[in-house]
Write a structure and sequence with these properties.
By secondary structure, this protein is α+β, with helices and mostly antiparallel strands. It is built from one helix and four strands. The radius of gyration is 25 Å and the shape is rod-shaped.
Length: 142
């Protein structure tokens, strides 16, 4: 009697099927993962804009007006966010200088946030002491 040999290992078809399933899972998961990373990096912009807002409120409390440029502010931080993902731009309100300002966090060119399609820019508009955040609320939550 001849002894039967058990086949061990995987067939080529089984390996191809598993590789195809792994490819489909990776294709589905990668965009979600990159969006998750982009949302986490938005915290860098939020922190920089909040620091600028605090400096503006101190300036307003001491001088009665909001500053039109960063040079007049103490503690406003640098024009680049702490982690370097965003440029922070400050402009006075054109309609009523001294009564408000617009601060924007603009993704740095060529940086990882430049591909953030959900929240391409974060804006903070303060008019007569009332802050409005844009483009929408979920951009400010991380």
């Amino acid at each position: 009697m001849a002894a039967l040999r058990c086949a061990r290992g995987f067939t080529l078809v089984e390996l191809v099927v598993v590789m195809a399933m792994a490819g489909v899972l990776a294709a589905v998961a990668l965009p979600a993962y990159t969006q998750h990373l982009a949302a986490g990096r938005r915290a860098d912009a939020v922190a920089a804009l909040m620091q600028l807002q605090m400096a503006q409120e101190r300036h307003h409390a001491n001088h009665g007006v909001y500053a039109g440029d960063r040079a007049a502010l103490r503690g406003a931080g640098t024009p680049v966010s702490a982690q370097g993902f965003y440029d922070i731009v400050l402009q006075p309100l054109s309609a009523s200088p001294g009564q408000g300002y617009v601060a924007e966090a603009v993704p740095r060119a060529g940086g990882p946030q430049a591909r953030d399609s959900e929240c391409p820019r974060l804006t903070l508009t303060v008019r007569d002491g009332i802050a409005t955040r844009g483009p929408h609320r979920r951009c400010w939550l991380s």
